Amino acid sequence: MSVSLTEDIPLCHSLRRIVFTHEQGVSEEEEVDGLDDDAIHFLAELNGSPVGTARILIKGDTAKIGRVCVLKEARGTQQGQALIRACIDWSRKHGLKRAVLGSQLHALGFYEALGFTAFGQVYDDAGIEHRDMELHL
User: Fold this and answer.
1) Predicted confidence (pLDDT) per residue in 77-124, tens digit
2) Rounded to the nearest 5 degrees, what angle is found at the Cα of 69, between the Cα atoms of 63 and 73?
3) pTM of the model
4) SS in 3 state form for the chain?
5) pLDDT tens across 3-21, in order?
């Protein structure tokens, strides 16, 4: 299991397409938002195969973690936790003070276990209920 920075945006898109578009029904237009060129991308690999990705968009002293996904066959192998920890570590190393993300409601406990706290109201993003979360770095 490893997580590293990547510039292979097409590979990240292919992983996201499997999870968000095929599995969760998010439209390709909503998933590909035009912000990838401005983001820091992470790739999770298991036994040498890509199984997950996440990205960070930086705004001021805040890291916006997003597009976090792990292929179904790799869930339960700590890949999601490794991706989020890599995002947090990178953000701290680069002097950011806060990490935020929009969590699907079913994943709130996953992010809470990593130190995030929910705030604000539930909202719809691409037909899926979300809630914002933050972690002070």
Assistant:
1) 999 999 999 999 999 999 999 999 999 999 999 999 999 999 999 999
2) 155
3) 0.95
4) CEEEEECCHHHHHHHHHHHHHHHCCCCHHHHCCCCHHHCEEEEEEECCEEEEEEEEEEECCEEEEEEEEECHHHCCCCHHHHHHHHHHHHHHHCCCCEEEEEEEHHHHHHHHCCCCEEEEEEEEECCEEEEEEEEEC
5) 999 999 999 999 999 999 9
- Name all domains of the chain by residue range, CATH numbers in brackets: 2-136 (3.40.630.30)
- Tokens, residue 63: 């890291």
Cβ atoms of residues 65 and 89 within 8 Å:
no
